[in-house]
Amino acid sequence: MSYNILVVDDSKSMRMVIRKTLEISGFRIGEYLEASNGREALDLMEGKWIDLILSDIHMPVMDGFEFIKSLKSKRPNSDIPVVFITTEGNEDRLKDLMDGGASGYIRKPFRPEEILALLSRVMGEIDVAERLENSPEGRDF
Amino acid sequence: MLLNDWKIALKDVISEVLETMFFTVVDFDGESAAVPLRYESEIAIFDSNGRIGISLYVTGQFAAMITANLLGVDEKGIGVADIEDALKEFTNMIGGNYHARMKNSDWSLGIPRAWELDPTEQEPMTTGSTGLCFGCFGENAGCVSLKYHEMARGPG
User: Could you tell me the residue range of the domain that residue A99 belongs to?
Assistant: First the structure.
């Protein structure tokens, strides 16, 4: 099974880093979509089937808090797991995100194995992080 | 930890961010960046009483190297827009991690920005003028400053 993934981040660099991290790990990507803020992501999702969302918090136009609030307010999008990849350092605000329906978060800077371990847990897989460790590319990552 | 020991905190934060995501090691032994610094970036951490501004200045060579490392591409293939975007993210991570060390929920992290300085503004900087400079592979690479601005209050 492959996953349709939506990455929401105003940084083109981070979108590229996340994509490379997933590709090198062997994470099975179906369609890979990118948006630079929450508003753009919601528009992009119209009529699309998304399995997993990876999102930043601090973004212009619509930040991660507004994004998840809007996303979780309406089915079927409310069922999509959302993982935040963020520099947010305020534990209270991170707790608010989890209370608002986030499936998890990871702080930047991150190591590839950290993000893969979290995604494996969220997607109910156990082998993604192991795959990274065992792949020739993964060892050089 | 707020403004006390900010240099120690920023040294740790910059080292961790560069090593983890930019595959780069820096040292803080140098007294100045004797070469012109080409890019500037900044991020604010604020509450209702004031604002902490973290500004970063780096050389063109260092900026290109960490951008290429982050993206996993050759330096020849990157442009100013790529560098500005990578520096913005670098600054974002520095601000976020500094913010996390403050352990004070009243403060919020702003949105970072980065830009190429006008050639007339590209000057060498010193530890004396900025507070903290760093080097990479024996070359001066950049400087960072942290400043606190109290919010202006009206009478009464």
Answer: 3-133
Report residue A102's pLDDT band, with 50, 70 and 90 as the boundaries: very high
Q: Is residue B65 part of a domain?
A: yes
Tell me what the mean pLDDT of segment B7-24 comes to.
Answer: 94
Q: Give chain B's domain count.
A: 1
Q: Mean per-residue pLDDT for A13-19?
A: 94
| pLDDT surpasses 80 at A100 | yes
| CATH assignment at residue B25 | 3.40.1550.10
Task: Please check whether residue B97 touches A, CB under 8 A.
Answer: yes
Query: Which spans in chain B are helix H?
Result: 6-21, 60-71, 80-102, 127-130
Q: Which residue of A has its CA nearest to B114?
A: A11
The whole-angstrom distance between A94's CA and the closest CA on chain B is 11
Residue in chain A nearest B18 by alpha carbon: A109
In a domain? residue A140: no
Whether B44 maps to a domain, the answer reads yes
Evaluate whether residue B78 is within a structural domain.
yes
Which of A66-80, B23-37, B50-64, B78-92 is least confident? B23-37
